[in-house]
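User: Sequence in, structure out. Go.
Assistant: Echoing your sequence, followed by the C-alpha cells.
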Amino acid sequence: MSNIKVSVIIPMYNAARFIESSINALLDQTLKDIEILVMDDCSPDNSADIVNSVYADCDRVRYVKMAVNGGPGKARNRGIELAEGEYVTFLDADDGIVPEALERLYNAAVKFDADVVQSAGAYVPAMFPTPDNIMLTPDDKMVASYKDADTREPMLISDDMNERIQGLMAGKLGGNVWGKIFKKSFLVENNINMPDLKLSEDTIMCLECLVKAKRYVVTPYFSIIYRMIGDSLSKGTKTIAFMHKTLDAT
C-alpha cells in the first residue's frame, strides 16, 4: 500500500474470540487509507490461524509475529517501527471502534498539523456478558465515559505546560493510548515509545507525548468501544447508573 494515512497497531495475545470483529471494525472505517498491523505476541491459541486465513488476501492487514512474548508494550513499539502511515494509533484486540473515528481524528490532525489528536472519551457496554463481537452491542447498552477533554469542536490546547498538567490532573487529557492518533515522525524524532513495564506503560507514553507535543489537539469525538478487562464488572448489576458510578471511580 502507498499513501497510508493511519497505521493501526493491534497487540494480539489469546484473542481468538475477538480479533476478527476488531479487524473488521477497522476495515469498516470510513477512512480507507489505513493499514492494520496485527502484532502476535506469541499467542498460544489459534489467533494467528484466524488472521492468516481470513485476511490472507487483504492488503490492508499485516500479520507480524514477535520473536518472544514481551507484553503489549513491546508489541506496540515494534508496530511503531514497522508502521508506514503518517499517523499511528492503537486498538486492543478485544475492543471496537466507531466507523467514523479514524477519519474524524485524521482530518483534525491535518487541519492543525497536529502531533497528537485525542478523542473525548470512549463507549463502554453496560451489559454482561459483553458480546464477543463488541460492535453488536445495542446502542441503549452503551455508556459514554467522559474522561477526557470537553470541547464542542477540534481545538489546539495551550502550549503552557502548567495548563497541560492541570488538564491531565483534571482528567481532561487522558493517559490511555486508545482513542488517540500520533504523528509517526513526532514519535520517532522524540524517541517516544512505551517503557518495558507490565502496567501503565501507555500512561507514561501519553504523558511524554503531552510534554513534548508542540501541537496537541482535543476533539469532541467518542471513538473506541472499550471492553472492561475480563468483563471485570460481572459481579454487579449492569445498570446504566451502576456503570456511571464505576467509571467515575476509575
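User: And one key feature?
Assistant: The first helix runs from residue 19 to 27.
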